[in-house]
Amino acid sequence: MALTLKAMTYFTTALRHGNIAKAAAELNIAASAISAAIDQVEAEFDLTLVTRQRARGIQANASGRAVARKCIRLLDDYQSLLSEGGELKQSLSGTLRIGYYAPIAPAFLPQIFDAFLPEGTNVTLELEECDNDQAQDGLMNGKYDAILFVAEDARPAIAYDPLIEAHPYCLLPVAHPLARQSVVSMADLAQEPLVVLNRPVAAAYYDGLFRTGARDAPVAAYATSTEMVRSLVAAGRGCAILNMCPRTSETYSGEKVVARPISDDLAPLTLAVGYDKTRPRRSVQDFVNACRSHFAKSGPARCVVGR
Amino acid sequence: MALTLKAMTYFTTALRHGNIAKAAAELNIAASAISAAIDQVEAEFDLTLVTRQRARGIQANASGRAVARKCIRLLDDYQSLLSEGGELKQSLSGTLRIGYYAPIAPAFLPQIFDAFLPEGTNVTLELEECDNDQAQDGLMNGKYDAILFVAEDARPAIAYDPLIEAHPYCLLPVAHPLARQSVVSMADLAQEPLVVLNRPVAAAYYDGLFRTGARDAPVAAYATSTEMVRSLVAAGRGCAILNMCPRTSETYSGEKVVARPISDDLAPLTLAVGYDKTRPRRSVQDFVNACRSHFAKSGPARCVVGR
DNA sequence: AAACAACATCAGAAAATCAGAGGTATCGAT
DNA sequence: ATCGATACCTCTGATTTTCTGATGTTGTTT
Question: From which residue to which does the signal peptide run (chains A, B) (predicted)?
């Protein structure tokens, strides 16, 4: 690897000028460095490529010109490698891979994408629903560019921006008596059968919520998907406590549910976006920014139920 | 130019192994060098390309794999540049450009080419007739790979191998009285009209030859080509003194000439092959060798007239 | 002959590279 | 839970490479 890109650059520049001194001036280095580079190239091929005529500059012979052509080609390829690499960082094109532990992400993610992906950008989205740990694994090993996850369960190595604190709320069938209240309390719920979202982080969280308040009624159902929880609630199976909520009150089953804030001071869950903060690709950074500004606004698009 | 070929090599090797230590072993360098190279590549693109998981090696993310692909491509191109360069030196293919100041070169060059160019080699010959100075210029500035020229007029910078000493001989019409002698002397020629080859080096040389011996007869003709001299001689215009001679006694005019050695001790001209001795391409070296062995043999193929 | 232009060479300085030691995180087995 | 193996990171000093600037040489031009 004696023939470095630098040597090739010097070599081709010198040939282009036909003059070592001029090349040195252009490259802002000493002429001797150019001369040495030419020596290197010749040594590498063990060929005389250039005739050096004192007081008349240098001139490449046929072999020299052939080598120079190839070198120029390689340097061009190198430049395009660099700029393509730059585009990897700069451009919005490419693939944006997002893992999310946020079952109601469909409620807001499309809107976020709309905000930072103008029409015509050819970004391919890869969206993968997963649990909090998988998301963090995926972020660390490069599977995901960014993750939406619950910050309370964040590992120290994960860099993230909090997006929103989602306080738990109560999901009720429309016909439920509590639905007539604008706010419900944990005490209100003590008698209610519950439909519990049984997902890694969520299960422990809900468990924590109820450890304080006494529970009389049994758990009516465990479900591993948010929509199942919602549909069970809509069908009157019980109430549920959730943190984020879609923008529709209608469930897959066609029936409706009602969301009511909880008056008790319960620990919220923080939705956060995790990503590589040290060197984010532009599209990743844009996505993060879009997430932040999305949740910075108030309104139903934030998918939380305020007290 | 922070991203060197070396760094790319280390980077791609590390990714291929998914393991810095293994890559270091393969490349016979310290692991820290690999790690530094990866840092360099990432810094160059200002992107995280690799996730380093202690005790589990390294893993490229999508960007890393993309960059690696491009790097591998570039390194391949680099390798082929090197090997093509090697072929420039090694192979017999390519172009062999020869300038010659030897008007009778057609008498022997084809035979020389036969000797070192086996059938099927795709060497393109570029043969250019020129004068001694042009030949040397062309050799120095890379226009010619090798030159056939007169060594007496060689510049110090030109490296050459003498091929043959060509003593002057006398060219006579077949019907000329002197043609009956097996040898002629300068004195014999003093009375004869001369046909003089009027070419840069030759003119001075012949001038020198006659400065010593007295000349009575005028110069019958000056001609700038050997064949014209021969034809003029054949036509009886006069005699000529030349150094090398073709293998035919017939001239373009269809008439014949006779060559006779000169008994006087006159300075010969040395036919030499000039070339770049420091780094000859293989085909050039082969050509030179073929020239030497051609003129090392005795016989009419040497194109001289012996006493 | 003198002035000028341009490459060659060399020594020392600056920079890059590398090896090796020591440290730390992770995983798996005990 | 602890220990050992693995594998990456960081730091330091040595080595190698590269560069500069001065000086020398050569060839051209006036």
Answer: none
CB contact under 8 A, B82 and A44: yes
CA distance B234 to B230: 6
Distance B35 CA to C28 C1' (A): 26
For residue range A144-203, what is the model confidence (pLDDT) as tens digits? Answer: 889 999 998 888 778 899 999 999 999 999 999 999 999 999 989 988 888 888 888 888
Selecting from B48, B71, B77 the residue whose C-beta is nearest the C-beta of A279 gives B48
Write out the residue range of the structural domain in which residue A292 sits.
94-147+274-302
CA dist A249 and A27 (Å) reads: 68
Token pair 């693939």: residue: A95
Q: Tens digits of per-residue pLDDT, B174-183?
A: 999 999 999 9
Q: Using a CB-CB distance cutoff of 8 angstroms, which residues of chain B are in contact with residue A96?
A: none
Q: Assess whether B190 and B44 both reside in one domain.
A: no
Closest residue of A to B142, CA-based? A61
- State whether A83 and A224 are in the same domain: no
Domains in chain A, number? 3
In angstroms, rounded to a whole number, what is the distance separating the alpha carbons of residues A176 and B38? 61
Tokens encoding A299: 């309104």
- Which of A90, A108, A124 finishes a domain? A90
